């Protein structure tokens, strides 16, 4: 883990496990748990453009705002784009939160089971067993076209940069 920057949480650096992914590289496959407890892989989303919106927990204000924003943007992006919000929250927590918030265009997936996704994508905060806030845009061939790791837990992702990348790919 030498040289890998951590994530700042309340002025304290948390260690983050996994290598940071780079634009132009192939996105690692995953096995994440959906709200119905089924397992979802990258291949399940076919040749759609994918936004992977990764948050520490849906039940925090910045994470909730990030998920709401991508849910709103989904309508203008059309059926060729899928937005996945990924957290280490348990699937029934994600389902309850989405129902209470009216989230219906973003699919939530959980990395909680084994945190392999979090390790593979370089977002595993090992101090709290959560994900570092980040966003990835994958093209139809699952090549990373946008990657952002947010170094301070309470900061937002750059929505405009991620959305501009998606619009270029459409």
Provide an overview of this structure.
- By secondary structure, this protein is α+β, with helices and mostly antiparallel strands.
- It has four helices and twelve strands, in the order E-E-E-E-E-E-H-E-H-E-H-E-E-E-E-H.
- It has helices at residues 61-77, 91-101, 116-120, 159-169, and strands at 7-9, 12-14, 16-17, 32-34, 39-40, 49-54, 81-87, 107-110, 124-125, 130-131, 134-138, 144-149.
- The chain has a seven-stranded mixed sheet with strand order 5-4-8-7-6-11-12, with helices on one face.
- A hairpin with a 2-residue loop joins strand 1 (7-9) and strand 2 (12-14).
- Helix 1 packs parallel to helix 4 (159-169).
- It is globular.
- The chain starts with 6 loop residues before the first strand and ends with a helix.
Total strand segments: 12
Report how far apart the termini are. 36 Å
| Tally of separate helices | 4
What is the C-alpha radius of gyration, as a whole number of Å?
15 Å
What's the pLDDT, averaged over the residues?
A: 95
* Strand line-up across the major sheet: 5-4-8-7-6-11-12
Mind summarizing the main beta sheet? Answer: 7 strands, mixed
Low-confidence stretches: none
Structural class assignment: alpha+beta
Helix and strand pattern: EEEEEEHEHEHEEEEH
Q: Report the helical percentage.
A: 25-40%
Percentage beta strand: 25-35%
> Judging from the principal axes of the Cα atoms, what is the shape?
globular
